[in-house]
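<instruction>
Derive structure tokens from the sequence
<data>
Labelled lines for chain and fold
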Amino acid sequence: MADAAKALLMLSGGPDSATLAGFVAPELPAGNRPTAIYLNSGHRTDAKEIEAAEKIASRIGSRLEIVNIPELLRALRNDRLMTPSEHSIVPFGNAIALSLMMLCAITARATAIYVGYHRDDAGDNEGYSRRAMDRLEALAAIDRDDTPKIIAPFHTMTKTEVFKLGAAMGVPYDLTWSCLHAGELHCGQCPACRDRQCAFASAGLVDPTRYKPEAMTRDGVGAG
């Protein structure tokens, strides 16, 4: 980690973190770009997510640093840390992810960690709540006075509201990746693709995503 970094941005390459990048960059002092961090699990979709994350980081003038954790996940008998896979989501997966981000921030002498969690995330899993983030901060502060702050600017917003905000800021959602399956196009059928489709539809936005032709549905969702 570079000592010059003052803020870290947890970047997955998905729409929520892309919105976060677009939101955070203008809020920081001129010339102080956040360092984007991607937690590489070794899952088959990581290549597409990294490609998307690199494009998003580049647009805000940040560099992307990749933290490789495949061996950790193999030890936990899983291949995803924060999202469902063919197995099950790792228990305390978000706590592990935030702990890794906290370690990166302390190493980089960063003062803040930005994450794109929203209210729907916390509704599905309490581990994504503000309370959980506060407790992890408190744990990190046990033996140090300069604990980085975990900042989640969307934690009171729904996913639909996050998408509306991103659209208003001109976030390039066509560059993002959500699908849980590898390929050049989104499958349009996995839970992540369905959530993506629903968020665009609920926000009243045109979905720019390129889906596989078989993902076309009777109501036209997936036609992006």
User: Anything to note?
Assistant: Confidence is low (pLDDT under 50) at residues 1-5. The beta strands are 7-10, 35-40, 64-68, 112-114, 149-151. The chain has two domains: 7-172, 178-224. The radius of gyration is 17 Å.
